[in-house]
From TrEMBL:
The lineage of its organism: Bacteria, Bacillati, Bacillota, Bacilli, Bacillales. Pfam families: Hydrolase_3. One of its GO terms (molecular function) is phosphatase activity. Keywords: Hydrolase. It comes from Paenibacillus ferrarius. GO terms for cellular component: cytosol. This is Hydrolase. InterPro entries: Cof, HAD-like_sf, HAD-SF_hydro_IIB, HAD_sf. SUPFAM superfamilies: HAD-like. The keyword Hydrolase applies.
Length: 266
């Protein structure tokens, strides 16, 4: 089977735990690209913190960011918004009240910017690791901007409690809440996921789902793995993701993306 589009999750999949791209993985991705396949990074990151990785790969093209909420095209002219699934700040006001009261760190994102109300050294290190420079404001509720993602960051046991309570109370209303990592909860438009964004991109490129390979490691990758003709999980994925995958490759620290591309594309 020839795969014309390769969708790659970034953190926990493409990158090692040290958030690095290995030289061998870069070389293999370049080989697959040079054979004619579209390489699409599909990530929870914002465009600005995804672009350096695309550049490190020596590529340009479409990036699916904010877990599918914003699709962006990158070339030598810069970043162009292709599509976004947005919502308004009043829709998350009850959730903002909850995290402010509990002292849980959060940020809100437009397609190209991130806003926070406070920051400690712990959060600074997290943002630095993900190549993010958030904008500090007094009250995000006063921004008056369309939002594509509202994210909580904290210890896993704290977020376990938040997830349980918000699900019981349906505090997120019609919006969609997902656990995008042990330390992250994202709230987005119900239409926003990597699968829907990948579906729209494939249609624009006239690529059939059977010609798509998707590699991921977490629950926010399930929709794109399901949409793709071949959905692959890296070995460090949770059990639920491993069971949902069509195939399993080595972990992110063992160059699982390289291994899968060699096996199925080269």
């Amino acid at each position: 089977m020839t795969y014309r589009l390769i969708a790659l999750d970034v953190d926990g999949t493409l990158l090692t735990d040290e958030h690095e791209l290995t030289d061998q993985t870069i070389q293999t991705i370049r080989e697959v690209h040079d054979q004619g396949a579209h390489i699409v990074l599909c990530t929870g990151r914002a465009p600005d913190s995804t672009l350096p990785l695309l550049q490190q790969l020596g590529l340009e093209g479409t990036m699916i960011t904010h877990n599918g909420a914003a699709t962006v095209y990158a070339d030598e002219r810069g970043l162009t918004l292709v599509n976004e699934f947005a919502f308004t700040l009043p829709e998350i006001e009850s959730m903002l009240g909850y995290v402010r009261k509990e002292g849980i760190h959060f940020d809100v994102c437009t397609s190209f910017n991130m806003y926070i109300e406070r920051i400690s050294e712990y959060e600074k290190q997290m943002y630095k690791k993900f190549l993010i420079t958030p904008k500090l404001v007094t009250d995000v509720s006063e921004l008056g901007l369309p939002i594509v993602k509202y994210t909580l960051f904290g210890q896993s046991d704290i977020l376990d409690k938040v997830q349980k309570e918000w699900e019981e109370q349906q505090l997120y209303g019609h919006l969609r809440m997902i656990r995008s990592g042990d330390l992250f909860i994202d709230v987005m438009s119900p239409a926003a996921n990597k699968g829907n964004a990948l579906k729209a991109l494939a249609a624009s490129l006239e690529i059939d789902p059977s010609e798509i390979m998707a590699i991921g490691n977490y629950y926010n990758d399930l929709e794109m793995m399901d949409f793709a003709g071949l959905g692959i999980a890296v070995a460090n994925s949770p059990e639920g993701v491993l069971k949902a995958a069509d195939a399993v490759t080595s972990s992110n620290n063992e160059q699982g993306v390289h291994e899968a591309l060699v096996k199925y594309c080269l």
